[in-house]
Amino acid sequence: MTKIQTPFLLFLLLILLSCNQKKEQKEYTEHIGDTVFNPKIDHQNFKFCDTSKVFHSRSLIGYIGGQRAIEKEFLQQFVFDESFQDFTGTFSIRLALNCKRETGRFRWEILDNQFRQIDSPKKLEEQVITIVRNLKNWEHINSETNPDGYCYIILNFNNGKLILS
Fold first, then answer.
1. Does any domain span residue 48?
2. Is residue 152 part of a domain?
3. Calculated CA dihedral for residues 77, 79, 83, 86, nearest 10 degrees
4. Cβ distance 96 to 35 under 8 Å?
5. Structural domain harbouring 74
6. How many structural domains are present in the chain?
7. Range of lowest pLDDT (8-17, 40-49, 105-114)
8. Cα 8 to Cα 88: distance, rounded to the nearest angstrom
9. 30 vs 128: CA distance, rounded Å
10. Contact, 113 vs 88, CB < 8 A?
11. From the CB of residue 18, how many other CB atoms can be counted at a distance below 10 Å?
């Protein structure tokens, strides 16, 4: 064999071997970005009006009065407890809003100022989530169709007290 034929045969062999390899097929779920129903924590009555058109843009969902109205309602219901005093961190809460302005599918993370997951006093966590679940003045913004969608609420605490925006 000549010097030119050897590299050519090796190249041809590599091509043939790569053609015989099975390509791994990736499977994608239909719930990319969706919060899947969890019977342990979600209310059975909450339903999206049209599951084929659930928006993931916060710009389509708001609260009447904005973040300050959320904070005002929160402070009216919040009861400080001494056990909260050592907690400093952020609650990042995601919720779904359907076309009827009903909320559901609440999920949350509790983070420190370095965005690491932390724990809060259980009583504080339960109170925060209960208050947020009871917020009722949600609205669809700039939309005539009132689409289903998701939004986030961010609540920051310092020494167990809500930091106002």
1. no
2. yes
3. 60
4. yes
5. 54-165
6. 1
7. 8-17
8. 66
9. 31
10. yes
11. 8
Residue 15's CB: how many other CB atoms inside 10 A? 9
∠ Cα 142 65 51 (to 5°) = 45
Q: Looking at the domain assignment, is residue 126 inside a domain?
A: yes
Q: What is the DSSP letter of 44?
A: T
pLDDT surpassing 90 at residue 125: yes
- Averaged over 134-158, what is the pLDDT? 88
Average pLDDT, the chain: 84
CA distances to 10, 18, 21, 24 from 13, in Å: 5, 9, 13, 22
Both tokens assigned to 71: 């904070």
Q: Which of 156, 152, 118, 132 is nearest to 33 (CA)?
A: 152
Average pLDDT over residues 39-67: 83
pLDDT, residue 28, reads 44
Percentage of residues in the chain having pLDDT higher than 90: 53
Nearest one of 163, 35, 47 to 109, comparing CA atoms: 35
| CA-wise closest residue to 101 among 135, 65, 68, 126 | 135
Higher pLDDT, 23 or 84: 84
